[in-house]
Design a protein that fits this description.
This protein is about 70% helix and about 0% strand. It is built from 4 helices and no strands. α3 packs antiparallel against α4. The protein starts with 14 loop residues before the first helix and ends with a helix.
Length: about 140
C-alpha cells in the first residue's frame, strides 16, 4: 500500500527564463550585419555632409523611397509574410518542376527582401539621426 509515486514537478518559468529563451532566439549574425551596414551608410552620409555635397539628403531620401517600394513589391504588400511555401500547400495539379521553381523563387525572394530591409533600416536610421541633429541638437547649441 505504500507504493511511492514519482511526481514530476513542473518548473516555474519566470521572467528570467523567458528572457533567456528570447535571447537564444535572437539572430546575432543578422544584427551584426545590419549594424555594419548602418555604419557604412552613415559614414558615407557624413563624408558627403563634411564635403558639403548638397544633394546628399535628397539622394538618401530617394534611396529610402526606392527600397521601400522594392520591399513592398517583393513581399506582395505588407499583409503577407514572405515565407517559403510547403510543397504540400502548393496546388496538386502542378508538376514537380513547377513546385521546385515556386519554392526556389520564394527562397530567392526571402533572401532579397532580407537584404533590402537591412538597407532600408540603415538608410532610414541615418536620415532619422540627421533630422534629430538638425532640428534638436543644433537648435539647443544655438
Amino acid at each position: 500500500m505504500s507504493k511511492s509515486k514519482k511526481y514530476r514537478v513542473k518548473k516555474k518559468t519566470g521572467p528570467a527564463d523567458e528572457i533567456k529563451a528570447a535571447f537564444k532566439k535572437f539572430n546575432f549574425r543578422l544584427a551584426g550585419k545590419t549594424a555594419l551596414c548602418f555604419l557604412a551608410v552613415f559614414a558615407v552620409y557624413q563624408i558627403g555632409i563634411y564635403f558639403e555635397f548638397k544633394p546628399m539628403i535628397h539622394i538618401y531620401s530617394i534611396a529610402v523611397l526606392i527600397l521601400f517600394v522594392l520591399y513592398f513589391i517583393l513581399n506582395r504588400g505588407l499583409g503577407k509574410p514572405a515565407g517559403i511555401p510547403d510543397r504540400a500547400s502548393l496546388p496538386a495539379e502542378w508538376s514537380e518542376e513547377q513546385k521546385d521553381d515556386a519554392v526556389r523563387i520564394a527562397e530567392k525572394t526571402r533572401k532579397a527582401s532580407k537584404v533590402i530591409l537591412m538597407l532600408l533600416v540603415s538608410f532610414t536610421l541615418t536620415l532619422l539621426l540627421d533630422m534629430m541633429w538638425l532640428f534638436y541638437i543644433f537648435n539647443i547649441k544655438n
